[in-house]
Design brief:
The complex is a heterodimer of chains A (316) and B (236). Helices cover 68% and strands 5% of the residues of chain A. In chain A, a hairpin with a 2-residue loop joins β2 and β3. In chain A, α1 packs antiparallel against α10 and α2 packs parallel to α4. Chain B has a single domain, classed as 3-Layer(aba) Sandwich (Rossmann fold). Chain B is 39% helix and 26% strand. Chain B has ten helices and ten strands. The longest helix of chain B has 16 residues. Classes of the chains: A mainly alpha (316), B alpha/beta (236). Chains A and B meet through α6 and α7 of A and α2 and α3 of B.
Chain lengths: 316, 236
C-alpha cells in the first residue's frame, strides 16, 4: 500500500466512521436507559434518509404508491435535514410509546422488547417500500451549495481525492458529537438523564420523571439515526428501503466493540469499524461487513466487555 | 390538621400483604419514628408514601391533598423528600452533581447554589469531596450525601429510611445529631429505624409496626418506658 493509498483509506474511514459513531450513539443512549438494543434504530436511519430526501428533493420514481409524484415546494437542504432529523426523533418516540412502554408496563421480558422492535423495523421498511418503491434515490450534487465536488492533492506520483461531501459529513458529525457530549456531561438535563440511566427508582425520588426522560432519550436516538441516514444518503444515495439493514448491523457491531452503554466506546467503535471497512481491499469490498464482524469477534475474545465497557454489566 | 396522614393503608409487596390497614399521622414540626422488626413493613410504608409502591387500599393525604394516585416525581414537587434505605447515591456522579440533582424540582438556581454551600457547612466532609464521584465515599459519607441530597429539594416532609444502617456507632450519633438539628430548624421528619432506642430518644412520637400492622403508638417518651415495647424492641 502506498502512502497515498493509506492516506486515502484513512480519510475515507474517518469520514464514514464518524457517521457510524453518531448512528451507534442512538443505540447506546437507549441501551443505557433501558438495557435493550432497539432493533428499530436501523429502520429510523432509513426513514430519516427518505424524509430528508422528500423535503429537499421530493422527486419519486416509478414504483410505489407515490410514483411519479413530485412535491412542489422544496426546502433548502439544511432545513430539510434538520426537519428530517426532528421527524425521525418523533418517530422514535412513537416507537417507544407503541412498542416498548406497553411491554414495560406489563413487566415484559427484555427479549420481548427486542422482538417488538424487530417487528417495528419490518413494518417501517415495508411501509417505505409500499410508498416509494425500492429504487435508489440520489440527492443532486448541488444540495450542499455551490462547492467543489472534491479536494485533491498529490503525494509524489499518486493523488489523494477527498470528496467535499465526506468533509461536510465529518464536520457535521463532530459538531453533533461535541454538542451531545456537552449536553450529557455538563447540563442539568444530562445529569438527570444519567441519573435515570444509573438508577430509575432513585431518579424518581429526586423528582425526575423517568418515563419522560425515556421519551427524550428515544427522541435523541431517533434524531441521531435520522441524521446518520440522511448523511449517508447524500454521500451514497438513499439505496432502497433495506438500506438501513446493513448499517443497522454495523451499528450493533460498533456498540458491542466499544462496550455496551459506553458513549466514548460508541465513538471509538464507530471510527474503528469505519477504518476497518475503508482498509478492506477494493476487490473484497463486498465482504467488508464480514471482515468487521470477524475482527469484532477476535477483539471480544480478548475483551468480552468491549473496548471501553465496564468489566461486567451491572444494574444497581 | 396533620401534614401527612395515612388512612387505612394496605400495600402488597413481594406477593404478600406487607402493610395492613395502617393509620399514621405526622404533624408539622414533629419527628415521628416508625420502629419494628426486619420485614415488619417499615420501608414498605415509606415507599408507599413516596409512591414507589401502589396502595392496595386506603388513602394518603399530604397537606390535606390526596396523593394516593400521584406519580413519585410529582410527590417530590409537592414537598416530600425520601432518603431511601441503602443510601442510593448516584455512584457515578460527583458529590456536587448529586446535590444539584437533589434540587431537580426547583427552578431558583441562585438559591440552589446557596443551599449547596449550606450543605457543605452542615457536612464539611462533603465539601472536601465535592468533585469526587459519590461511589468513592465511605458509608457514613454516602449517608450524609443522601440526607443532604434529600434536603436540597427544601422538603416540607423528610422521609428517612434506616439512616444508621451499617454505620459505625460514632457516625450514627453524628447522623442523629444532624436529624435533631434539621428538626430544630423546622424540617418535619418521618424516621424509620432499626436502632429503636436512639430513634425514640430523638423523636416526639413513635409508631410500632408488627407484621404490617400498627400495634403501639404514643409519645416516644412514654413508649420508652412501656415494658411491652421495651421487651420487644429495646432488648431490655
Amino acid at each position: 500500500m502506498t502512502t497515498a493509498q493509506f492516506l486515502q483509506n484513512l480519510l475515507n474511514g474517518i469520514s464514514i466512521g464518524s457517521v457510524y459513531a453518531i448512528f451507534a450513539l442512538g443505540y447506546t443512549l437507549v441501551f443505557s436507559i433501558l438495557g435493550i438494543i432497539n432493533f428499530a434504530h436501523g429502520a429510523v436511519f432509513t426513514l430519516g434518509a427518505y424524509l430528508t430526501y422528500a423535503m429537499a428533493v421530493g422527486q419519486f420514481g416509478i414504483n410505489g404508491l407515490l410514483s411519479g409524484l413530485s412535491i412542489p415546494v422544496q426546502l433548502p437542504f439544511p432545513v430539510a435535514l434538520l426537519l428530517g432529523c426532528i421527524l425521525s426523533g418523533l418517530v422514535s418516540v412513537l416507537i417507544e410509546r407503541l412498542a416498548f412502554r406497553p411491554l414495560r408496563n406489563r413487566g415484559g421480558d427484555a427479549l420481548l422488547a427486542l422482538v417488538s422492535s424487530l417487528g417495528v423495523a419490518l413494518v417501517t421498511v415495508n411501509a417505505i417500500q409500499y410508498f416509494v418503491g425500492s429504487e435508489i434515490y440520489s440527492f443532486p450534487p448541488e444540495i450542499y451549495g455551490d462547492i467543489k465536488p472534491a479536494i485533491t492533492f498529490s503525494i509524489g506520483e499518486s493523488v489523494v481525492v477527498i470528496r467535499t461531501v465526506q468533509v461536510i459529513i465529518f464536520g457535521v458529525c463532530m459538531a453533533v458529537l461535541v454538542s451531545l457530549g456537552f449536553l450529557i456531561a455538563r447540563t442539568r438535563f444530562g445529569k438527570a438523564l444519567r441519573a435515570v440511566a444509573e438508577n430509575p427508582a432513585t431518579a424518581s425520588l429526586l423528582g425526575i420523571s423517568v418515563n419522560r426522560f425515556i421519551l427524550y432519550t428515544f427522541f435523541l436516538s431517533g434524531f441521531l439515526g435520522g441524521l446518520a441516514g440522511s448523511l449517508v444518503g447524500t454521500s451514497f444515495g438513499v439505496a432502497g428501503p433495506y438500506f438501513g439493514v446493513t448499517y443497522g448491523l454495523q451499528g450493533i457491531a460498533v456498540i458491542v466493540l466499544g462496550g455496551l452503554g459506553s458513549i466514548p466506546g460508541s465513538v471509538l467503535g464507530g471510527i474503528i469499524i469505519g477504518l476497518i471497512e475503508a482498509f478492506v481491499p477494493p476487490d473484497y469490498s463486498a465482504y467488508k461487513e464480514a471482515v468487521s464482524f470477524a475482527l469484532l469477534f477476535l477483539i471480544l475474545m480478548v475483551r468480552p466487555q468491549g473496548l471501553l465497557g465496564q468489566s461486567q454489566i451491572q444494574k444497581v | 390538621m396533620a401534614l401527612l396522614a395515612l388512612e387505612n393503608v394496605s400495600v402488597n409487596y413481594g406477593g404478600i400483604q406487607a402493610v395492613r390497614g395502617v393509620n399514621l399521622e405526622v404533624n408539622t414540626g414533629e419527628v415521628v419514628t416508625l420502629i419494628g422488626a426486619n420485614g415488619a413493613g417499615k420501608s414498605t410504608t415509606l415507599r408507599a408514601i413516596s409512591r414507589l409502591l401502589k396502595l392496595r387500599e386506603g388513602a394518603i393525604r399530604f397537606d390535606g391533598r390526596e396523593i394516593t394516585g400521584t406519580a413519585p416525581d410529582a410527590v417530590v414537587t409537592l414537598g416530600i423528600a425520601h432518603c431511601p434505605e441503602g443510601r442510593q447515591v448516584l455512584a457515578r456522579q460527583s458529590v456536587e452533581d448529586n446535590l444539584e440533582l437533589g434540587a431537580y424540582v426547583r427552578r431558583d438556581f441562585a438559591a440552589i447554589r446557596d443551599d449547596i454551600g449550606k450543605m457543605y457547612d452542615l457536612f464539611p466532609r462533603l465539601g472536601e469531596r465535592r468533585n469526587q464521584s459519590a461511589g468513592t465515599l465511605s458509608g457514613g459519607e454516602q449517608q450524609m450525601l443522601a440526607i443532604a441530597r434529600a434536603l436540597m429539594s427544601r422538603p416540607r416532609l423528610l422521609l428517612l429510611d434506616e439512616p444508621s444502617l451499617g454505620l459505625a456507632p460514632l457516625i450514627v450519633l453524628e447522623i442523629f445529631s444532624i436529624i435533631r438539628n434539621l428538626n430544630e430548624q423546622g424540617t418535619t421528619i418521618l424516621l424509620v429505624e432499626q436502632n429503636a432506642r436512639l430513634a425514640m430518644q430523638n423523636s416526639h412520637r413513635t409508631y410500632v409496626i408488627e407484621a404490617g400492622q400498627i400495634t403501639f403508638t404514643g409519645p416516644s417518651r412514654e413508649l420508652l418506658e412501656d415494658e411491652r415495647v421495651m421487651r420487644a424492641y429495646l432488648g431490655d
